[in-house]
Amino acid sequence: MTAPVTARADLSTVDVAPVQRRTLTVLIVMQIIGTIGVGVAPSIGVLLAGEVTDSEAWAGLARTGSTLGAALLGLPLGTLAARRGRRVALTTGWWTAACGGALLVAAAQWSLVVPLFVGLLLIGAGSAVSLQARFAATDLAAPRQKARALALVVWVGTIGSVLGPNLGVPAQVLGRATGLTVYAGAFLIAAVCLALAGTVAVIWLRPDPLHVLAEVTPTASQPHTGARHGRLRMMAAELRSNPTARFAVVAILTAQIVMVAVMTMTPVHLTHHGGSVTVVGLTISLHVAGMYALSPVVGMVVDRGGHRLSILIGIVVLVASLVAGAWHPDDTGWVIACLVLLGLGWCFVNVAGSALFSSVVADRVRATAQGGVDALSNLCGAAAAFISGPLLAVSSFSTLCGVAMVVLVPLTTMTLLRSGGARPRV
To answer: Which of 153, 303, 155, 139 is nearest to 220 (CA)?
Structure first.
């Protein structure tokens, strides 16, 4: 088999495999610990918001706090990675999130509104670095193993996504021993996990994968523009001149908008139709499983079948999900099937789009651009969550699914018009 003749093939002439294996091991351990802390925000954080604010309007704003925090901090953390490396950026993000968790302990214990909002914003840094970790997994990966490495780090985040929402149980035990409320105890555990994730990164993420990449790939070691605005200009110029990178960004953002819009309002829809808390919890758990459980398999499909085919598969699965939700909105079984397929379709498009973006964006702006994409993704998710509420209130779950199908049209058109391959950029 002929070796790839791209600049990234420089990696094949240098034995970076041991460093990549070590990097993946550290990222996996860090991701498992850190996502436990991240997972508490969309579950217990939502409940805490309602209790502290005692206002549905303020509670609704607070519920988007961690998502907005991830959006606002994604680009600065990506820029920090470009300047100082993955290790510094990941550590900073996890420890910032830990500070947010500590503020939420105080907010929960004494019903403090300002620490609630600030804490939720800061804990969003955990989501931002959890997303950045998937890109860090691709820095030294061989071209045909990028999607697999990315998907593996995404997959292990399932553990935290499942354990995080259930921190209320150990928090009750902690509360009996310390006098903390259940919510305060849960966020104390989350803060400790987030701090430990940062400690794992700062101690063991050596050598830094981005620094190694700069040593083995000449174009990656070119000087970065000193000012932040200079890097942003380079990122914007890269996206203007790189249609494949634009396509990858459209794929990532479209999948996020469709998934968040439908997922966010499903618990409300089920509750309005008599669904119990148990049914709602089971539905969301199965949705999360759809998002992450098969990601290693999806990564293999992307590496072997290509990005375009994988995105097409994801679109088909998303359409099937939305048709199920629109056709049988009052049947709990069909709604659950809708959510499971929604997660799986998101996984195909997100893994393929993220791996494609990491492969084709220029080395000199890779880390900054990755942070920018994550920030845009979180902003789009927050906007989708915000819009989906009023849309469901004035229409129906079927209409919401129909609108989501319309959102898929541009990506579907772009994917069908594209040729199969994509050449990495340097």
So the answer is: 139
Contact 70, 127 (CB under 8 A): yes
Query: What are the tokens at 96?
Result: 């910032």
Q: Is 3.40.366.10 the CATH number for 230-419?
A: no
d(CA 415, CA 355): 16
User: Tokens at residue 104, please?
Assistant: 């939420």
What CATH number was assigned to the domain covering residues 1-221? Answer: 1.20.1250.20
pTM, to two decimals? 0.78
Q: What is the pLDDT of residues 43-65, one digit of tens each?
A: 677 668 778 877 655 665 666 78
Q: What is the pLDDT of residues 370-411, one digit of tens each?
A: 888 888 888 898 888 778 878 888 889 999 999 999 999 999
Question: What number of residues does the chain have?
Answer: 426
Report the alpha-carbon distance of residue 188 to residue 175 in Å, rounded.
Answer: 10
Report which residue type is found at 64. T
**DSSP secondary structure letters along 240-272:** HH-HHHHHHHHHHHHHHHHHHHHHHHHHHHHHH
Decide if pLDDT at 353 tops 60: yes
DSSP state of 140: S
| Range(s) within the chain of domains with CATH label 1.20.1250.20 | 1-221, 230-419
How far is residue 323's CA from residue 313's CA, in Å, rounded to a whole number?
15
